[in-house]
Design brief:
alpha+beta; five-stranded mixed beta sheet; 20% strand; binds FE2/S2 (inorganic) cluster; Ferredoxin
Length: 109
């Protein structure tokens, strides 16, 4: 199964992932610019992504804890999610998202 990820400089990448992986892990393991500092423990918000609007219903709403973490970033939008909270499954095959500036390992130029 695949996800389509646009990075912070606008390049689109098609990444292969496995069922049950966190979307954050797929992005990180393919070497894209995502910090994911806490490794998926929902305590950093540096795995912040914008889910393509056409996928919002499939992905569903964030938990209260996730929303609290998202409130801590300055570039939050209505389609913001933390990618460590999204698990790869058949339903998410083809998921499109964009890496948020605040997920970058270094300050984006
Ligand atoms: S990796 Fe830290 S909240 Fe997702």
């Amino acid at each position: 199964m695949k996800i389509l990820v646009t990075d912070q400089v606008g390049t689109e990448h098609e990444l292969e992932g496995l069922e049950g992986w966190r979307v954050m892990e797929v992005i990180r393991d393919w070497g894209l610019n995502i910090k994911a500092e806490c490794g998926g423990a929902l305590s950093c918000a540096t795995c912040h992504v914008y889910v393509d609007k056409s996928w919002l219903d499939v992905v569903g709403a964030p938990s209260d804890e996730e929303e609290d973490m998202l409130d801590s970033v300055g570039d939050v939008r209505s389609n913001s999610r933390l990618s460590c909270q999204l698990l790869m499954s058949d339903a998410l095959d083809g998921l499109k998202l964009t890496l948020a500036p605040s997920a970058a390992k270094e300050e984006a130029a």
